[in-house]
Amino acid sequence: MKNKVIIITGAGMGLGLATAELLAEQGAKLSLVDYNAEALSQAKETLENANPGVEILTITADVSDEKAVKGYVDQTLEKFGRIDGFYNNAGIEGRQAPMTDYDVNIFKKVIDINLMGVYYGMRYVIPAMQKQNYGRIVNVASVGGIRGVLNQTPYVASKHAVSGMTKNAALEYGRDGILTNAIAPGAILTPMVAEAFKQVNPSDPKAAETEYAQRNPTKRLGQPKEVATVVAFLLSEENGYVNGQTIAIDGGESNIYGNS
Ligand SMILES: NC(=O)c1ccc[n+]([C@@H]2O[C@H](COP(=O)([O-])OP(=O)(O)OC[C@H]3O[C@@H](n4cnc5c(N)ncnc54)[C@H](O)[C@@H]3O)[C@@H](O)[C@H]2O)c1
Hints:
By secondary structure, the protein is of the alpha/beta class. Helices cover 47% and strands 15% of the residues.
């Protein structure tokens, strides 16, 4: 990844930050986007301390705001002159509730961030990559983009859409040297998942986590670094021919049918 210019959305914590850490170690130049300005500046400090000399641009932007998305793409091009890789990662889970009880405003917010945010990102990044005749895009779907997840209708709908848009981008822009893939993480221990366990069992989130892990063939949750290594490959030139795929990173959990 030496000197490759990579945009990461949702870079302030969780999966985005873990990938930023790995790519910084590998010598990439990073454009980090998040709507949490404080998390973003902490992330920058952590990355600079661990990787003296690393070049980092931070941009506070909400990915569901089309103008702000154009803004982070323009600012990246202004500073670095090109975009080699795009980790289209920012997303939210929403609140958990059965489909017919789901708060419609939260439903729309999940769609705005997880679906429209991912779309706006590709809409503005792809033309820059076309000019270079080179680019690698990794969109973040979820195991909820492959199958249903109880009480998470808008999340599941948005993540299936991410997988679908990934296939279309692969079809339409493969000819321009742009490879687009999605990842489908299972339960990876990030702040988002910690919050989900709090919703499942507010008095004992750790018990909810332990119980959940038992369903996984590996009997544990995943670590953000285990996602980052796959993302780093898909964002690199080493990936020459993987295009339009949704790759599960879930310890094999999505293969289970029925009780295990
Ligand atoms: N952690 C998991 O187990 C898991 C599993 C499947 C999919 N995912 C997906 O991975 C991605 C990252 O999840 P995570 O677990 O790291 O979450 P997280 O909540 O730990 O971190 C997400 C980051 O994205 C930022 N963000 C959220 N909405 C934004 C917006 N509209 N604009 C800009 N920044 C925004 C947040 O401020 C935060 O820094 C999400 O798309 C999520 O759906 C995570």
